[in-house]
Amino acid sequence: MPSIRGSQSKKKTRRHTRDLDQVHADIQSKKHLQQYHDTKAPEDLPGFGQWYCVECAKWFESELNFTKHGKGKPHKRRVRQLKEEPYSQKEAEAAIGLTTDNGKKENVDEVMEVEIELEDEVK
Q1: Disordered: where is this region (predicted)?
Q2: Torsion over CA of 15, 21, 26 and 32, rounded to 10 degrees?
C-alpha cells in the first residue's frame, strides 16, 4: 500500500542527518558533541559507535567504510558547506529589518547646544 505523501517520503526521513548549524556547534564544542553521543546507546549504533564522521553526522560499520567515506564527494561537499559561518538569529532579524542598532545615539541636549552655537556663528 503506497504512503499518503508518496513512496519516497519514508526514505527521505530515514536518511536525514543533523543540520549544518548542529554540526557546526559539534565542531566548535566537544561538550555539545558528547551530549549528542550520550543520547545514543553504543549497542544500537553501527560498529558499536567506534567510527563517527563529525562533519556528516554518520556512523560507520568499519574503519574501511569510514576512510572511504572521507575520500568521497558527499563528505567533501559537506565539509565545504561547513566552512561557511552559519546564520545567527541576529542576522536573520537584520535581514527582515528588525534591527535594534540604529547607530550611535546622541544626546538631545548636546545636539541643541551645537545648533545654538552654529546659529550664533552664522549671525
Answers
A1: 1-33, 67-88
A2: -100
pLDDT in tens, 25-62: 999 999 999 998 899 898 988 888 899 999 999 999 99
End-to-end CA distance of the chain: 90
Using an 8 Å Cβ cutoff, are 69 and 56 in contact? yes
Which residues lie across from 59 on neighbouring strands? 52
**Adjacent-strand bridge partners of 51:** 60
The pLDDT score that the predictor gives to residue 16 is: 75
pLDDT for residue 72: 96
CB neighbours (10 Å) of residue 45?
Answer: 16
pTM of the model: 0.61
